[in-house]
Amino acid sequence: MTKLDLDNFLPYQLAVLASRVSREFAAVYQQKFDISIPEWRVVAHLSQSDAVSVREIHRKVDMDKSKVSRAAARLEAAGYVSKRVSEVDRRLVDLELTEKGRAMIAEITPIAKKFEREFLAGLGPDRAGFRKAVRRLLTQS
Fold this sequence. Notes:
Blueprint: H1 10-33, H2 37-46, E1 52-53, H3 54-61, H4 65-78, E2 81-85, E3 93-97, H5 99-121, H6 127-140
Antiparallel strand pairs: 1-3, 2-3
Helix pairs in contact: 1-5, 2-4, 3-4
């Protein structure tokens, strides 16, 4: 029986890399804003639009609906997000950033961009190819 070499198995490598990068960036925003990785993903996604449903966030950020709902509840309690129940379908909940949430995003955006620049700088001249490969892989699914 052939043994699976995890150190050279791409799905494993990508999972470990994504987890590591996520944790390193989380250390920055968790200390300053006391939000978790799932909460960051919800807030970051909300920063791209006015109001978004929990269902849409679940689909876009690849998190379980229950995890999105728990993150949204914590963000609402902290004053970063407000909820609005759909008038058409009471089961649908739209989320939007509050003024406090928008201020947090405004403060964290330059920090996030700096983090990304420093991470990509470690790739040297390979960074453009890396970005292109990541975009291609993300659009294949």
